[in-house]
Write a structure and sequence with these properties.
mainly beta, 14 strands, globular
Length: about 220
């Protein structure tokens, strides 16, 4: 398990959402990724379809975190020789990534939470204009959270994706539904976090992905 720090910087949110901003010129933490366990997939069809197939091709993601007191941003960087940004046929999929938080305790990560311990995903996909914040209480239970505006920007160059995903620190909860819970983030606190990456050229989607299979500690600098 890695310990990550979201450092405070004096910079605008508009600057920090840029993956090429000079504020990101700092060391990254490398997070190891593994294929999501096949036995945790949501259906026998998915298990049978992927039995013996290679997936979870992205084996590492390099992460950096910054906040400006008002919003927090993550820069995810990973090697990918294929830039997949369009769904052009039924067997074509896009590259994607997610930042995953438990919203209550140490939620079961590999099955995307439970009824008592939901998770909140910040989900970026290469063909979307804006990332989506979704909640889940298990596989195939995701519900989009409409009141949590995320921002993102991305760049693919020389076989490397650089994706920034950010959110305001304070979010007002507007729904009692557990699948609509969002991560509570504030300076001077610590939360759990994990990461997932989908390789579109390998038809990875849904639960078929590379994921950090443990929660990591994220300290948000006061």
């Amino acid at each position: 398990m890695a310990t990550l720090t979201a450092s405070y910087v004096r910079a605008s949110s508009q600057a920090l959402v840029n993956p090429d901003a000079p504020e990101w010129d700092r060391p990254a933490e490398t997070i190891e990724l593994d294929p999501s366990p096949l036995e945790t997939q949501p259906s026998d069809y998915v298990i049978a379809a992927w039995e013996g197939r290679e997936y979870g091709r992205v084996t590492q993601v390099r992460v950096r975190q910054l906040h400006n007191g008002q919003a927090i941003f993550f820069l995810l960087e990973w090697d990918d020789p294929h830039k997949d940004t369009e769904i052009t046929d039924i067997d074509k999929f896009t590259d994607a990534a997610a930042i995953i938080f438990p919203t209550r305790g140490d939620a079961p990560l590999l099955v995307m939470g439970s009824e008592d311990q939901p998770v909140n995903l910040w989900y970026w996909r290469a063909d979307w204009e804006q990332p989506r914040s979704v909640g889940a209480v298990g596989h195939s239970t995701t519900v989009r959270y409409p009141g949590d505006a995320l921002a993102a920007a991305s760049a693919w160059r020389d076989g490397v994706w650089r994706v920034v995903i950010g959110r305001v620190l304070e979010v007002i909860q507007t729904s009692p539904e557990p699948t609509a819970e969002v991560a509570e983030l504030a300076p001077g606190t610590s939360v759990k976090v994990s990461f997932g990456v989908w390789e579109g050229s390998n038809q990875e989607r849904g639960g078929i992905k590379a994921i950090s299979q443990v929660w990591h500690e994220l300290n948000i600098e006061a």
